[in-house]
Amino acid sequence: MKTLKARIKTLLLMLCDAVIINLAMIIPFGLRFYENGSIDRYLSSYISIAPWATITFIAIFYVFKLYNRVWAYASTGELFAVIQAVTLGSLATIAMSFFSHTQLPRSIAVMHWALAILLMGGSRLVWRYIVERMKTSGHKPTRRALIIGAGDGGALVARELKGNKSSFVPVGFIDDDPMKKNAAVLGLPVLGTREQIPEMVALHRINLVIIAMPSVEASVIRDIVDICRSTQAELKILPGVYQIIDGQVSVSNLRPVQLEDLLRREPVRVDLEEIAAYLNEMTVLVTGAGGSIGSELCRQVAAVGPKKLVLLDHCENSIHSIWLELTEKFPGVPLALEIADVRDKPRVESLFHTHRPAVVFHAAAHKHVPLMELHPAEAVKTNVFGTRNAALAASRSGARVFVMISTDKAVNPSSAMGATKRLAELIITQENRVSNTIFTAVRFGNVLGSNGSVVPVFQRQIARGGPVTVTHPEMKRYFMTIPEAVHLVIQAGSMAKGGEVFLLDMGKPVKIVDMARDMIKLSGLEPGKDIQLEFTGIRPGEKLFEELLTAEEGSSATSHKRIFTARPALVEVEALESELTKLSGKGLQCTVEDIFNALGAIVPRFRSYRREQAG
Question: In this predicted structure, what is the pLDDT of residue 608?
Fold first, then answer.
């Protein structure tokens, strides 16, 4: 139901349009017949059908919803709707004059059509201009902005800066397209190419540079960041192409350039709504729900409307934090909080029996390589037996899908953490052979911004003035963003057939030292000058580079061009059970060598790989 204010507004618009429609007819009559004195005869013939023509036009405008549009934000879409509605109204008027034997010359009909469009569109644009002037009246921007990219994103940013009470006034655009050289967009000039950014910043006294190219390659963003670093201007970026699609661009959307923007490959995108359909109206359980990956999993799962979302974690503070967030953002999603440790088998069995989850995302794990070298028994208890407890409980409670989060460090592992995650993969592969539950694993590279990743460490070191410590100048890692990681996990659950390991095409591995340099540059500083780099040496358990596959696994394509699967070689059940029993018996006395011996006994090829490493 429309409010009284909205109805009055609609009636005023209808009255205004009625005047415009008739004025658009009277003016052509005056121009066409005033001099020969026949205007009265022709005009009186139109007046006889004018009321019906006016009502017809207004009705057509109403059907085309011209009175439901916010004309303060009118664009080409609104103009096209006006053209369609006026054209249909003009045809109806011509038909009306024909059947009523009214003399309406064809030239008048054409002139009326064109003038009606001009007056209708003009009245809307005048209203938009008045609204924009009212918004900015009395407001004098004190700072100047330069927009990189004269495409859709740049135009939307410019319009937002011009139409809102921002402290910035847009001065012009930078664009490498030669066709846009010396052109103007929204009245603002295209000042040059990216090489001219420092010159334009100095010439026009620019305070803020805005990168408004949401779909451009990461390498281009890196080049622009490097160029802008030589200026004193602040640098911000328009986050994503989805905001261009939705038209959701505002000054508040702009943010500082982040490391994810400089990822040395294109981010992997998936249709989350399509792949997450299997979670809708299902009970979903997430272990490690308070961690960086687990909490993001909870957010994404909650967004698709599960029947119930069970959050399991042993840390009360982290799980309380994500619970508060989910309660606020998704009030309609039933949540169950469980403070428990996956190493506690009876407790895990009881929780699974109570909630009967259909889908399980197993994110609970110890993942810090150097720490697990010092405490290998803890890695075994959580990564090996915690995974086994959760897998057995899922199978016994009738879960449909169990997705375990693994790591590229599980491939030919050199650390206690990697070896325990490899054992965890073998456990769920074996469980898949004997259970009706679909068990699958997802191997991650390093996740940017996750707890314990290099990014927060580098940020702290830069904030205190350095040095930034890197273990080795040649150390390389595969990197992915948290959204990529979570999308991969959810996609794995929808594609899994059972027993496979999912991998993401993460491009080429990135040197850690290059990432450190990028972060220093993002802070507006110069590596080696403002912030020093210091190499500390490889830590226990680390490798110079990680692999995604063992030699015998191979990889297969999936329906997603950037996601692949591997089939881990099957192992002897007796050997697996025997070695797990030995590890369990050692308890707190379990050493790194015990873990590698167990893995070597289960996977014979691993012994030879270890000898190659030692040699």
Answer: 47
Confidence of residue 387 (pLDDT cuts 50, 70, 90): very high
- Residue-by-residue DSSP string for 64-96: TTTTSS-GGG--HHHHHHHHHHHHHHHHHHHHH
pLDDT digits (tens, 9 = 90+) for 517-546: 877 877 767 788 888 888 888 877 676 766
Please state, in angstroms and rounded to a whole number, the distance separating the CA atoms of residues 249 and 162.
13
Domain range summary for the chain, segments of one domain joined by +:
4-135, 143-257, 272-609
- Is residue 283 a contact partner of residue 338, using CB atoms and an 8 Å limit? no
Q: 272-609 domain in CATH 3.30.390.30?
A: no
Query: CA dihedral defined by 326, 329, 331, 335, rounded to 10 degrees?
Result: -10
> Which one-letter DSSP state was computed for residue 186?
T
Contact between 313 and 362 under an 8 Å Cβ cutoff? The reply is no
What is the CB-side half-sphere exposure of residue 82 using CA atoms within 13 A? 24
**CA–CA distance, 445 with 506 (Å, rounded to integer):** 8
CB under 8 Å to 478, separation ≥6 — which residues? Answer: 408, 445, 446, 506, 507, 509, 510, 546, 548
**What is the C-alpha separation between 176 and 56, in angstroms, rounded?**
50
**Alpha-carbon distance 385 to 597, whole Å?**
17
Q: pTM of this prediction?
A: 0.62
CATH superfamily of 143-257: NAD(P)-binding Rossmann-like Domain (3.40.50.720)
